[in-house]
Amino acid sequence: xxxxxxxxxxxxxxxxxxxxxxxxxxxxxxxxxxxxxxxxxxxxxxxxxxxxxxxxxxxxxxxxxxxxxxxxxxxxxxxxxxxxxxxxxxxxxxxxxxxxxxxxxxxxxxxxxxxxxxxxxxxxxxxxxxxxxxxxxxxxxxxxxxxxxxxxxxxxxxxxxxxxxxxxxxxxx
Length: 173
Known about the structure:
By secondary structure, this protein is α/β, with parallel strands linked by helices.
C-alpha cells in the first residue's frame, strides 16, 4: 500500500490501520517527518522532497491519495493490474482506471457514532495512537483550519473547549 502524506492528520492514522491489518506500507512525507513515518511502522518511507514516489514504490495494490492533483495523476503508474486508487480529495478518473485495468474510488467521510465508537475501541486497545501536532483554544479555530489546509501539519490539530468557568473539558479535533 502507498499512503500519500503519511505523517498528516489522516495519513498517520491510515498508516497505523494498514499496519494493524498486516499491510506492507510505503508512505510519503517531507524530510522532517521521516522519523515519524518510521515510528508509525512504515516499511518504505519516501521523502518526497528528495525522491519521486514512483521510483520507490511499484506494483502497489492500493494507493491512498490524500493530496490530489499531480500526485493523484502520477499515482496511476505505481498500481499493479487490479489495484485500487482511493482518493479522499478528488474523484479519480473512471476512464483512466478502466484503461489501466485498475479500480478507482472517491471516499468522502461521514463518520457515524458507531464508527467513532469502533475507532475509540482501537485507540483504547493501543493499536491506534493519534499524533497531536498542537492544541489550540477554540477561539483559534480559524488558525487551526488554516494550518490544517496548509498540508504541512504533523498528525492532528486539537481544539481545547472551555466549560465557560475557566476549566476545560477534553480535546476535540
